[in-house]
Specification:
The protein folds into two domains: 5-131, no CATH class; 183-360. It has helices spanning 5-17, 19-34, 38-51, 55-62, 66-72, 81-95, 108-113, 118-124, 140-145, 160-165, 185-210, 214-243, 250-257, 264-280, 288-304, 331-360; strands spanning 98-102, 126-131. The termini are far apart. It is mainly alpha-helical. A two-stranded antiparallel ribbon has the order 1-2. The longest helix has 30 residues, at 214-243. α1 (5-17) crosses α2 (19-34), α1 packs across α3 (38-51) and α11 runs antiparallel to α12.
């Protein structure tokens, strides 16, 4: 009997929300294929693909046209073994699992005499998941916190006096303390800019190495890199202006004073003339092609996320879906591109401050 649309939608919804069910569905499809039940295998694999990767992405990954994939997994399809292996290999890799056939005990001569064939033996074999990257789960101290409710007497951020007033066991372990007592505003702003970059690195490393939560982590990863660039530019502008004796004009000062200014193109427009003056004065060696590359990155980031909204909110203030023109962002690729981009501003920040200190001495 054909599956109803409601039943298929139920399966699709469960596949999306239940990783264990999703892996079992893939396992069952491959198991049916290996035991010769190709019709059932095609049905299960087709439902799995529709609910997860989709035929378009599968076509791009396997280099088999999407229409051919849909036809070979359709009711009258007759897929070749090599195509099936290519499809299954990709689905296993994307799901982050590997399957092994656990053989049933041999039936022996007596079973053979009773007519129990090797095909029946194969049907009793079972696929098991033998290797998969371990999904991150919250540590015990976070899980323990789920049993408590917010209380009106809770103090989220403790002043030094409040810190001293509460019992030691309520302060948390000493190694988990983050010091906010930076020496000056310069050190403080550096901590902000570098902190967002380091957080992006940690999230990207986890998503790529563990192959989990890519669809969730892409938003904070790009936002953290973008915000780090914004903070480095805001650090660089006043020091560079003083270094090259090119003070900010009234318009630039007013623009920079707006704390809500997130546009990278506007910040770059203020900084770039000072950078050119430094290059002319040989105060920093930045090749022209590198400057052009930085300008290109600034322009592209600004086109996608002008006001630092796109990777923080699913819709703009006007209700328009953000990032609607894109389907995929590869976390490894975007990290490889953005990491040296942020690194340029971090390195330039050190050079300019050294030059400025030498000028003031």
């Amino acid at each position: 009997m054909a599956l109803t649309r409601d039943f298929k939608e139920t399966i699709r919804a469960r596949v999306v929300r239940d990783p264990k069910f999703r892996k079992e569905l893939l396992r069952e499809g491959i198991e049916c294929m290996l035991t010769g039940d190709i019709a059932t295998a095609k049905t299960i694999l087709r439902d799995y693909i529709n609910a997860t990767v989709g035929f378009t992405e599968l076509a791009e990954a396997t280099h088999i046209p999407s229409k051919s994939l849909m036809r070979m997994l359709g009711p009258s399809g007759n897929p070749r073994a090599d195509n099936l292996f290519v499809i299954v290999s990709f689905l296993q890799s994307r799901e982050g699992v590997r399957f092994r056939v656990d053989a049933a005990p041999a039936r022996g001569v007596a079973a053979a005499r009773r007519g129990q064939s090797s095909r029946k033996q194969a049907a009793d074999n079972r696929l098991t998941i033998v290797s998969e990257p371990r999904a991150w789960s919250p540590p015990q101290w976070i899980r323990d916190s789920w049993s408590r409710n917010p209380n009106k007497d809770d103090i989220l951020f403790l002043t030094p006096e409040q810190w001293q007033a509460i019992p030691q066991e309520q302060r948390g372990p000493w190694p988990a303390n983050a010091s906010l007592h930076h020496q000056d505003n310069e050190e403080r702003s550096a901590a902000y800019a570098s902190g967002y970059q380091r957080a992006a690195q940690l999230l990207a490393e986890y998503a790529v190495s563990q192959r989990h939560y890519q669809d969730l982590l892409i938003y904070p990863i790009v936002f953290l890199y973008r915000h780090s660039i914004e903070l480095f530019l805001k650090r660089l502008i006043p020091v560079a202006a003083s270094l090259v004796d090119q003070p900010l004009n009234e318009h630039e000062s007013r623009h920079l004073a707006k704390k809500a200014t997130h546009r990278l193109d506007c910040l770059w427009k203020i900084f770039e003339p000072r950078l050119e003056r430094m290059r002319a004065n040989r105060q920093c060696e930045v090749p022209k092609d590198l400057v052009e590359g930085i300008e290109s990155y600034i322009r592209q980031l600004n086109d996608v996320d002008e006001q630092s909204f796109a990777f923080r909110f699913p819709a703009s203030i006007h209700g328009t879906p953000t990032l609607a023109e894109f389907r995929y962002i590869n976390i490894m690729r975007i990290t490889v591109l953005l990491e040296p981009f942020v690194g340029f501003f971090a390195g330039l920040d050190e050079i300019i401050r050294e030059q400025y200190q030498a000028k003031c001495e």
